[in-house]
Specification:
- 4 copies of one chain form a homotetramer.
- By secondary structure, chain A is an alpha+beta fold.
- Chain A has one domain: L-fuculose-1-phosphate Aldolase, CATH 3.40.225.
- Chain A is built from 5 helices and 8 strands.
- In chain A, strand 7 and strand 8 form a beta hairpin.
- In chain A, helix 2 runs parallel beside helix 4.
- Chain A is globular and about 55 Å long.
- At the A-B interface, helix 5 of A face helix 3 and helix 5 of B.
Chain lengths: 204, 204, 204, 204
């Protein structure tokens, strides 16, 4: 699974979704006790190497020996994994950065009517809409993880598909790495569509 | 021909025209009885493998054994193949999604005066225009296939070049995979030109 | 030199400057008598093979045996070669297509003040300007070649850097393939700069 | 380290940040006496070869024998190295060209509130702002190097992160090649964000 996450990094870096040392990726490698394999903090995602990953427990505590640290955002990965995600991918694209900053005032971004929505887990018709929640950016990841946990526990209206941190980027997840990667591609495509549609709306 | 379709997928995925598990591709491998090799449903088009293809007959019924299903849109491929297409490529680009949503009210998109039009089958001068029809998106593919069949039967004014499904993407075809791929590249280029021209029309 | 032109094709196709079967490339392989190696008509520039090139004389007549034809635009290559070009590259980008269509009414596109201009042959300071002439698109290549020849003969004000055909694309050249490729990259970069600047001018 | 700079060139050329023969890159290979390995003048950055690098001293005088010349801008590299940079990367992107031309009147570009800012050396929270100074473009590099040196000596308000030359491109640096490359990726990402945000501001 290290290899699959390295390939995600290489592709996302090439597309400009994981530049600098931004982004972090994880996958559940054991359910009981919950154990995640996760990118270590501060590495170039375009050229990840196997020794740049760490193992963490359900509280994002480091399990693997050595000098590496998990990302500061590891708690967001572990809370999503505790509520069922098999893999969590966090990316920083230009479109996600700009849209999340603008639509923070609305609390989310509504995307409706596109065939590509069917690529999101649980959606089977284009006559659907996705509501992608947007949270203010913060350096207090523990506090945000608590908010996300409450949203995941809300059975009547659970957090779905993914979420944006304003001026920061996307968190999404799936049952495995391939499913999470699909979510990233679908959501980033839809962010581009929303952006292009708005740019053209003046000219149309 | 599996290899050629895998290369289409890899290139189109890289360009952002087949993200998520969107898109499907087919090629006629026998004319009598009509038999198509087609991408199975739900695979990543950027990394197709030979075992992810299926064979279908002229009614899009599965011919190959095993657990794979043809795409829900297989009927569109087979109707195009019955009227002469040797290969059919369906892609989802940002430009095609946005333009098809906007111009649905006009029933199509007129593209005129560009040299690149000469890359479309049957056009030999830039003093030509292409009319790319746009249909409402639907999950009832059988009904759409009937509409497309009627358009293909219209000898006085047949459907040409390709068509768009609104908010969804492009269908185009050619005598073989290379010809169909050329149609995709030419049409996607022209969609970009139309988009850029409109974006600039305010500033010009 | 076949290999170098194949690499141009692969890179330009990847960038979207030579999609479909658009574009043609040539290099002078002998000066006396003038002999050019040139891409044959109708091939995918992203995957050129050695057997897809032809040899032509100074009047663009085919020298190599076999079924291939030179491009319909071969006369533009030979006239440029007769006046000194060692390699000629013709590309079709979205930016060149849109700008050439819009600025045809002015007869050309003025680009001034950018450091990148120093990448063009003969320019040594950014306090320069390039005037890229734009001609109406035509299928009568012989007539256009005559116009271009007259411009190349104009010692007081010779055609420089390259030229655009409206709604069609760029012709540029250099003393060898590397120099011509540099001209393509510099001019396409500058076309993107002009486009972005105009798009932003409303918002600024 | 030649290999690392060749990889920078290949990646930046692919992204369109080092087209033509633009850009130059350097790395400190000895501190006492100060010695830099630097790209020679006039080469394609997408396909650098080991023999296309030169060695220079702290005054940008050529140390290595042979016909190659250091870039005309070598003095900017050496002044940055004398004040601590371990590697200096200079790139020419469309976004940097357009933004630097527009914001020259303000003397710089303020970028605030984005998570990606944390990728810049010395920034640990998104509640930061980066002020990227912009200088008029010039062919008198010695004079600009004197200005930059004065800014680096200003202990109360030193030049940070990088700087732009108007209509020209970005200079940035780091303790080593990987750190400088990170700075390029982060700053180019942020230039894209600023551009997209402004383009959308009319439509929003």
């Amino acid at each position: 699974m290290t290899q699959e996450l390295m390939e995600c990094g290489s592709d996302f870096h090439r597309r400009g979704w994981s530049l600098g040392t931004s982004s972090n990726y994880s996958v559940v490698i054991e359910r009981d006790p919950l154990t995640l394999l996760m990118t270590g903090s501060g590495f170039d995602k375009g050229r990840l190497r196997p020794e740049q990953f760490v193992m963490v427990d359900e509280q994002a505590r480091l399990l693997s020996p050595g000098p590496l640290k998990p990302s500061a955002e590891a708690l967001l990965h572990t809370v999503l994994a505790r509520y069922g995600a098999g893999a969590v991918l966090h990316t920083h694209s230009v479109a996600a950065t700009v849209l999340s900053e603008h639509f923070l005032k609305d609390g989310g971004l509504r995307i409706a009517g596109y065939e590509m929505l069917k690529g999101l887990a649980g959606i089977t018709t284009h006559e659907a809409e996705a509501w992608i929640e947007i949270y203010p950016n913060t350096q207090d990841i523990a506090a945000l993880a608590t908010v996300i946990e409450a949203r995941l526990q809300n059975a009547a209206n659970p957090l779905r598909h993914g979420f944006l941190m304003a001026g920061h980027g996307l968190y999404t997840w799936g049952c495995d790495i391939a499913a999470a990667r699909r979510q990233v591609e679908v959501l980033e495509f839809l962010f581009e569509v929303v952006t292009q549609k708005r740019l053209l709306s003046g000219a149309f």
